[in-house]
Amino acid sequence: MQGLVIQNNGNIYLVQLQTGVSVECRIKGNFRLKGIRSTNPIAIGDNVLVDLQTNGHSFIYDICDRKNYIVRKSSNLSKHSHIIGANIDQAILVVTVNYPETSTGFIDRFLVSADAYHVPVIIVFNKVDLYIENERNYLDALKQLYQHIGYRCIETSVVSMQGIEELKECLRGNISLFSGNSGVGKSSLIHQIDPTLDVKIGLISEMHNKGMHTTTNSHMYTLSGGYIIDTPGIKGFGIVDIKKHEVAHYFRDIFEYSHQCKYNNCLHQQEPDCAVIKAVGEFRISQSRYQSYLSILQDMTEDAKYR
Ligand SMILES: Nc1nc2c(ncn2[C@@H]2O[C@H](COP(=O)(O)OP(=O)(O)OP(=O)(O)O)[C@@H](O)[C@H]2O)c(=O)[nH]1
Ligand SMILES: [Mg+2]
Ligand SMILES: [Zn+2]
Q: Do the Cβ atoms of 278 and 261 come closer than 8 Å?
């Protein structure tokens, strides 16, 4: 019988069957997925085939082809990659400019990964009720930057309820994965979208201005129309399975200029007559985006050294 993986805890997977009933399953057999070395062979959002047993020993024996997935490494040098979610229609990247601050490096890494695996991203700037003038200005600048590149941006607050209806509208009829640093308000937003869902909400540490990793396991929730996946907050976002010369493809703003570089294998680092470096100098590509680009290339160089 076919089902949808809605939760994973260690080697136990909760699978929602087409009848609507959920069953706990383990995996039987050896799942070697094409070219993916990951810590979890089966991810939330996977469609799987289940052998139902009455004694509580139901098991997953096959997995259907994936439409897409989002994968990350916990750190740059980590050999293990983790699939955050599969078969998703869109990722909701929740960002805060303070309490805690999300770095542009993190945002850009997420966008690159999602683009590489064909997952559209909506950037949600949360906690807008809290920001003072300089934070507000920074948020405006970020929003303008990412909107200009082509990403949809929504400002939200679970306190003033700003943007909640707009976000709800985006989720309707889709499978949406919520991701972002710990404490940015992923679970809080999900709770506002559907208050009947039993999601845990955490505190922000006063000492470190960071989230407390309240959500410890991903969970897929059913909405009246669509599905939402709540995920644990993540610190770093290591890029998996992308080659150096491909990175610029996933920076849409950089890619636009790369055709005009003198050398067609230009990596836009210090090559002569590089149209990207020129565009950065003329403020047509943002410094922060270019820095993120260079930092990803740098990681790949270091990564290669340790292999
Ligand atoms: N003022 C304000 N506080 C918010 C908002 N959204 C969330 N918070 C607070 O931020 C804290 C963290 O919220 P969570 O929803 O647990 O954050 P999370 O992203 O799910 O965090 P993890 O599960 O650790 O990844 C809680 O104290 C929330 O009340 C908001 O829009 N405005
Ligand atoms: Mg949470
Ligand atoms: Zn170049």
A: no
